[in-house]
Specification:
single chain, 148 residues, alpha+beta, L-2-Hydroxyisocaproate Dehydrogenase, Chain A, domain 2, three-stranded antiparallel β-sheet, 6 helices
Length: 148
């Protein structure tokens, strides 16, 4: 992979790439065949998948989504919001995918700074989000009880 990048070899290799509609997946990093050259991942290569391969890919996508789900939003009552999510009281993504744990949060004194931070986090890649969580909560403990 390093040689393909350093020597602009335009090689097809498997790598995690941000998908924007390829394979029917949007806004997610997934391991797929890509062309790697001096520009890094230069192109996602879509290959025809069998039904079994499509199903396996979907399992991987669902696992990535489950891992990365974080309650990204602004609230003035985190305990209430976390309670709603952990008890599946709110329809939507967290209810559908069974997201119940609070593994990270940030407190802000000003609403504007909280909203700015929310917009920043929504643009972050997977590794940055994982690092953010693991810096403060390396064991991925449920932080809900710590709110009281």
């Amino acid at each position: 992979m390093a040689e393909a990048y350093l020597y602009d070899q335009k090689r097809i290799l498997p790598a995690a790439a941000h998908l924007s509609g390829e394979y029917g997946i949007d806004n997610l990093y997934v391991g797929v065949p890509v062309v790697i050259g001096a520009g890094g991942v230069e192109k996602v290569v879509e290959v025809k998948l069998s039904d079994e391969a499509k199903a396996n890919l979907q399992v991987s996508v669902d696992a990535v989504k489950e891992l990365l789900v974080a309650c990204k939003g602004v609230t003035s009552d985190l305990a209430k919001r976390a309670y709603h999510h952990r008890n599946a009281l709110i329809d939507g993504f967290t209810k559908i995918y069974g997201c119940r744990l609070l593994v990270w949060y940030e407190a802000h004194d000003e609403l504007d700074s909280a909203r700015l931070r929310e917009r920043q986090l929504k643009k972050w890649n997977r590794d940055w989000k994982l690092r953010l969580i693991e810096d403060k909560n390396p064991d991925w403990l449920d932080l809900y009880e710590s709110l009281f």
